[in-house]
Prior knowledge:
Mean pLDDT: 78
CATH topology of the largest domain: minor pseudopilin epsh fold
Helix content: 25-40%
Shape: globular
Amino acid sequence: MGILRGFLTNPRPAPSRWNHRLILESAAVFRLAPWSGFDIFLKHHTISKNKNEGWEILALSRRQFLTLSAMGGITVLARKTKLSFAKARKEEYMAYTAKDYSKLLGMEGFSETLLKNHFNLYQGYVTNTNKLVDTLSQMLKEGKAGTPEYAELKRRFGWEFNGMRLHEYYFENLGSKEAIDKNGKLAKKIAEDFGSLEDWEKDFKGVGTMRGIGWAVLYQDNVSGKLFNCWINEHDVGHLAGCAPILILDVFEHAFMVDYGLKRADYIAAFFKNIDWKAASGRMK
């Protein structure tokens, strides 16, 4: 009987396959059962082995590990063992991954502390979106779709997902010093719908300085093509159905208070100095 210690990790190999690694060393956390089934299991399953800093690593798929556990081949002996399949993914499902916006560091009017805090908050939305996708999927399989818990998580999903996606739009329409091309399609459409670029800017900034927390969004109606400046509250309230977000401004306190305190108008002025108009224009029909 072998006495082994190990823990499971969730490395991210090729996108099409997720493996759990059983990392083994001589100590009593995992115990191999005193039977020949383990050797039989290894003979009939392709399991890679390698050495890494003194550890012997067996790379098992989730199904292989669960099969071996069900057969009594592995017994967990330590409470602190890290056993979690919460991050496991089916082959057909790809987890959302937080994007890297470090290129924005050094942007005028936005301190490194402010931006790094903002990046961390965004990453939390990505994590929670993935957790909800997993949890809701599991609850559906367990026949819990009619429960109050399922309903509340479904309602929460829009908040987490939109928190993730709106931040991506926001970061991606920042980082440029180029002025808007007044002969470009976005500037022309703004002038057509608002009378002038200056009048649109006044209206957009007016939305951004409204009392409350949320987002100011320039939308384009996918049916008529018309542009609207809108207030979005709490990520998931106020979006215009069938409209595409063109320019996103985050006016939650975390977006500006580290640098500007309560001077939201000064933050919005800094935002306008850094808009990536090409990115915004690229979102138009």
